Amino acid sequence: MAFPKHAVIITAAGSSERFNTTSQLGVKKEYLSLDGHTVLYRSVAPFLEVPQCAVILVTYPEGMEDQCAVALEDVFQQNFLPVVLVKGGKNRQESVFNALKMLAAMDLDIEYVAIHDGARCFVKPELVIRTLATATVFGGAVPALPATDALKIINDNGMITHHINRTHAVGVQTPQVFRYPQILEAHQKAASTATTYVDDTEIYTDYGQPVGICEGDRGNRKITFIEDIPDAENQIQAYLQSLEEGKRSSQAARALHQAMDEVRKEQQES
Question: What is the rounded CA–CA span in Å between residue 59 and residue 132?
């Protein structure tokens, strides 16, 4: 197949609430490591192997731009494909919209946008290519796997109210790929409503665009809970210590510069 020109948005601006439930430490799971590389690096790197990618945009929480850049390792340093950091919003939907608006400002010649969760660090280039190929047929595409568990709907009290026939039920993954600028237009319309959407396929189909599915990958799992990273507790402690040391060094540097400025001022006045 001829690879379509595309851009990639990596969503990594969430609060990692489910991951930090046990520790209450508030550390971004994407910035921790698995087998020598950060979760975020592993989520981004496979997209570098897919031809015709024009740019990769990575969302980050407010105030964490530097930490995001460090977590990207040499992905952020390579010079053959631009990587742009985008400040996220109050939820995933707003973060993706921010990235799409940044993409629009770049005015690139692209046909599709792939949107991928920064916590899905086991994605393979083959899955990205398969999803892109499916999007060229339907306009939008998502990798999916058949539901294997019995599916139920419960009420606020935790009681089962409905039983779902799983024959046509699937669980979807990322990357989710959409024709551009149709995904931007769908997000623009969604932003003007009070609805909060679960994912981008819901936004795309709500505004009249079709989404097909391709075969997902059971290995393409998402880092969600703290036990998903074997030594997460130790990493978190070391990470927080490094942040604290960096903060103290920064404060010391500012104090030194301030003292030097005062000395220079006194010398000029004398």
Answer: 21
**Burial bucket for residue 16 (CB in 10 Å: 0-12, 13-18, 19+):** buried
User: What does the pLDDT look like over 24-41, one tens digit per residue?
Assistant: 445 789 999 998 999 999
Place of tokens 């850049």: 69
Specify burial of residue 135 (Cβ count, 10 A radius: 0-12, 13-18, 19+). buried
Residue 117: how many other CB atoms lie within 10 Å = 22
Give tens-digit pLDDT for 115-171.
999 999 999 999 999 999 999 999 999 999 999 999 999 999 999 999 999 999 999
Task: List, in order, residues 6 or more apart from 177 with CB less than 8 Å away.
Answer: 6, 112, 113, 114, 115, 131, 132, 134, 135, 140, 141, 142
Expressed in percent and rounded to 5, the helix, strand and coil fractions of the chain are 40, 20, 35
Tokens of 90: 């109050």
CA dist 58 and 41 (Å) reads 11
Least Cα distance to 176 among 237, 232, 123 occurs for 123
